[in-house]
Amino acid sequence: MRLFSTDHRTIARQYFFLSLAAVLAGVALSLLMRFHLVWPHASVGWFEKLWPVKAVGGVMTPELYLSLLTLHGTLMVFFVLTLAPMNAFANLVLPEQLGAKGMAFPRLNMLSFWIALASFVILIGSFLVADGGPLSGWTAYPPLSAVGAIAGPGEGLGQTLWFFSIGAFSISSMLTAINIIATVIDMRAPEMPLSKIPLTCWNWFATAILSLLSFPVLLAAGLLILLDRLAGTSFFVPEGLLIADAKIAHSGGSPLLWQHLFWFFGHPEVYIAILPGMGIISQVISNFARKPVFGRTAMIVSTFAIAFLGLLVWGHHMFISGLNPYSAIAFSALTMSIGVPSAVKTFNWIATAWGGGLEFTTAMLFALGFVSIFVTGGLSGIVLGQPQLDAYFHDTYFVVAHFHLIMGIAALFGIFAATSYWFPLMFGRVMDERLGKLHFYLTFVLSYTTFGPMHFAGFAGSPRRYADFTTFDFLAPLMPIQRWITWSAFALAAAQAIFLYNLFHSMRRGKLAPANPWKSESPEWTRDTEIWQR
Question: Of 37, 79, 174, 463, which residue is least crowded by CB atoms under 10 Å?
Fold first, then answer.
C-alpha cells in the first residue's frame, strides 16, 4: 500500500486505521475515567509515571480527569464517528456504486486524509504539553476557554492546540464533502441517473452537504476564539470578567455567541455521524433479507428531511442558557418533527426485513442491532426535546446515556456492520463469522447494561462532568449504579478484543473471499472482479 496514494481504496484503508487508532485511544481514556469515578482516591503507580504533576502519589486530580474527558469526547466525535462512516467507507465503495473510476478529485482526497492525520497528531500533542491538556470538554465553552492560561490549568497551550486541531479537522472535512458531492453529481456512469443510485450514496451525499454547511461555521468560530486568546479581541469574552482576582481586558463579547455557532455545527454533527450508518444499514438489511428496500423513495426523502431539520434545531442544546421562551418552543417543535422521518426509516427497515429470507450474518446482526439502539436512544431524545424536562435533565447522566446510545453506539454498530460486510473489498478475505457473532451478542447486551442504567442515574440527578461523586452526600446512594456502569463498561471494552483479533487475524489468515461473498446485487460487488487483486 503506497503511503501517498490517490487510489480511493488505499485512502479508505488509511482513514479506517486512523479511526481504529482513535477509537482505541478513546476507549482507553473512558476506562480511566470510569475507574476514577468509582475509586477516586485510589493510588496507581503508573499514573504518577505518566502524569507526575497531575497524578501526584498516583491519585488522579480533577484537572486530569477533565483532560481525559475532553480528549475522549474529541477523539470519538471527530476521529471515529465522523471519519469512519463517512470518509473511510464512502471512499471504499462510492465510486464503484456510481459506476465511476474513482473520486472526482483524487489529489484533494489524499490531501484531506493527511490534514486529518495532522489534526490527530496536534490533538494528541495538546494532551501532552507541560501545563496540562485542555479540560473544557469537546464543546470548549467560553469565557474560560477564550482567555488563555490565566483561566487555570489546561487553558494555556493545550487549549490553543486543541483549537488548531479542530480547525485542521474542519478543513479536511470540507475537502472530503466537496469531493463526495462532486463525485455523486459529475462522476456517475451514463446509465446511472440520480434516481437510480444506491441509498448508501444518497446518504453520503446528504451527509456531505451537511458537512459543507456546518464545518465552515465551526472553523470560523474556532478562528474567532483563537483571536480572542492570541490577539486580544473580544468576540466571546464579556466586559467586567474577573478571573483569579484580575479584571480581564476584554469588552463587548458574548459567550452565548459561541454556543450558537458551535451548536449550529454540533447538532448537524449528530447526523453527520448517523446518516452514513443509516445508508449502510439499508443496504445490509436489504441484502440479507433478499428483498429490495421497502419504500425507497420515502427513504431518500426522509434522509434529506433529517438533514434539513438537523440544521434548524441547534437551539435545543441551549434551553438552559436563557434562551427566549418563544425560541425554545420553536426549537422544541422542530426537534420533535425529526422523529417523523426517523420513524419512516425505522418502519421501512422493519418492513424490508419482514417476510424476507433472513440470513443472520454478522453484518445483518449489527444492522438489526443498530435499529434497536437507534430507537432506544431516540426515545430519550423526545424527553430532552421538551424545555421544561431538559431544564432538569440537561446536566445529568440522562444526557450522557442519550447521546452515547443515539450518536455513539448506534453509529458504531453501523461501522461494525460495514466492516464485516465490506471487509472483502478492503482486504480480499472474509472475517470469521463465529467470532463476529460472539462479538455482536456481547456488544449488544453490554451496551444496554452500560448505558441503560445511566438513565436512572440521570433521573436521580447525578451530574455529569463531576470528577468525584464521593464528596457529595446526595450522590452516595447512586454509587452502586456507578459501580455497575463501570464494571459493565470494562466488560464492554473487553468484548472488543474479539473484534480486534478477528480483524487482524482475518487480514492475514482469513478465508479468501469469493467474487461476491454475500450474493449482493450492489454495483461494488458485481462490477469489477479485479478488486480481489488490489
Answer: 463
Cβ proximity of 243 and 142 under 8 Å: no
Contact at 8 Å (CB) between 251 and 264? Answer: no
Question: For residue 142, what is its C-alpha cell?
Answer: 467560553
User: At 436, is the secondary structure helix, strand, or coil?
Assistant: helix
Does residue 238 sit in helix, strand or coil? coil
Residues making up the chain, counted from first to last = 534
Domain 8-238+249-533 = CATH 1.20.210.10 = yes
- Would the pTM of this model clear 0.90, i.e. be above it? yes
Percent of the chain with pLDDT over 90: 85
- Residue with the three cell numbers 431524545: 381
- CB 82: neighbour CB atoms within 10 A? 25
Q: Cβ distance 288 to 357 under 8 Å?
A: no
**All three cell numbers of 523:** 454495483
- Element of type H or E holding 297: helix 296-310
By mean pLDDT, which of 170-179, 262-271, 519-528 is the weakest? 519-528
Q: Cell digits for 140?
A: 470548549
Read off φ and ψ for residue 247, nearest 5 degrees.
Answer: -80, 130
472: which DSSP letter?
-
The grid cell for 80 is: 471515529
Average pLDDT rounded to a whole number, residues 209-216: 97
Give the SS3 label for residue 399: helix
Compute CA distances 382 → 37, 332, 399, 406, 513, whole Å.
Answer: 29, 9, 12, 12, 44
For residue range 237-255, list pLDDT tens digits in order.
998 888 888 888 888 899 9
Tens digits of per-residue pLDDT, 159-178?
999 999 999 999 999 999 99
pLDDT tens column, 133-153: 999 999 999 999 999 888 888
The answer to whether 100 touches 188, Cβ cutoff 8 Å, is yes
Domain ranges across the chain: 8-238+249-533
CA distances from 347 to 206, 302, 340, 375 (A): 21, 12, 11, 11
Confidence label for 532 from pLDDT (cuts 50, 70 and 90): very low
What is the DSSP track for 171-214? HHHHHHHHHHHHHHHHSS-TT--GGGS-HHHHHHHHHHHHHHHH
